Amino acid sequence: MSKAEGERGKREGMDRAEDAANIYWWQCMLECGKIIARRKPYFITDDIVLLCRSRHPNAYTHEKRAIGPLMRELCNLGYCVTTNSWIKSIQAQCHRRPMMLWQSLISDTTHQKNGVTTMTGYLVNTRTKRKFEIIQVDREKNLLTLKGETGGVFDEPYDKTRLKSLGYEYVQETQDG
Description:
Blueprint: H1 3-20, H2 23-39, E1 42-43, H3 45-55, H4 67-76, E2 80-88, E3 98-104, E4 116-118, E5 122-125, E6 131-138, E7 143-147, E8 153-157, H5 160-165, E9 168-171
Antiparallel strand pairs: 1-3, 2-3, 4-6, 5-6, 5-9, 6-7, 7-8
Helix pairs in contact: 1-4, 2-3, 2-4
């Protein structure tokens, strides 16, 4: 099978999954996808599923593969893009399998405004030797968005005294790495 045939088969399968999905579930998931993309600079589909379950407990589809076409639609709408990172799922039925990490294009914290700045460098824990890439600093909300060595992205309160007491040091990124 050629690469083109494989891609065509993938598109056809995604189209069938989308067609088989419950329309109410689809609309609820799109709504929740946009909400998550606004709230978080990085996310996985677990975030969307969990929000949808809490906001729309009656939204259900038998076609679980429709999450792929849903994410394609969120990308087409300009809400997010794929990254090269993966995070293990927290959903029991997914058995901690790796999930694509998505980057929001509409997050309130993605753009440089209202005290949000991009910062290059790392926080290194001098006790554990673990290194976290600093993605951004939101001084208004006092939050650092960090990316761990395994690709996980999370927010940490931006409190220099607290971070220092936990053993963290700021290391500025240099030209040669």
